[in-house]
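Long-time lurker. I teach an intro course on protein structure, and each term I like to show students one example going from raw sequence to a predicted 3D structure in token notation. This year I'd like something fresh instead of my usual example. Would anyone be willing to generate the tokens for the chain below so I can use it in lecture? Attribution to the forum is fine with me.
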Amino acid sequence: MFRDIESRGGILQCLRDGYIQDILSSTLAARISSYHTRKESLLGVNIFANTLESPNWESPHNNIENQQIDMNSTEIIKPVLPCRFAEDFEIFRSSVYEKSKTPGELIVFIANFGKASEYAARMDFSSDFFRLGGFTVVNGNQYEMDTEESLRL
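-- Reply from a regular --
Happy to contribute to a lecture. Here you go:
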């Protein structure tokens, strides 16, 4: 990458051309996508979220999103904006929190049927999914029964 930047005229020229910003933007989009699809985890955000936490987040680029950097009043370089990977999740949790106004007020009960080895992965996924939205998750007791018996319910 360093050789590529040097071959394009150096860091300043790459910033002027928007090359650095484009690389960072595509990398950011890929990373955020991996968090949204749970290929990567943000502990406390998209897994093991604390539903009793009151959202008090602010975007790191509220005041600079559309600003340009003026270099000696002769050239303008598009800024590289700061980003927090958890920001989308925090915005989502804030909107749910605004609806309920009380942390832990929204409750989801998960009933576990069968053997733990059969439901544990789905229970973990479902629990994290609902916690992400600010719901308190209550996992029920394990209800032992075979598959045919559970289908009759």
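Some talking points for your students: The chain has six helices and four strands. Helices lie at 2-7, 11-17, 19-36, 87-100, 116-132, 147-152.
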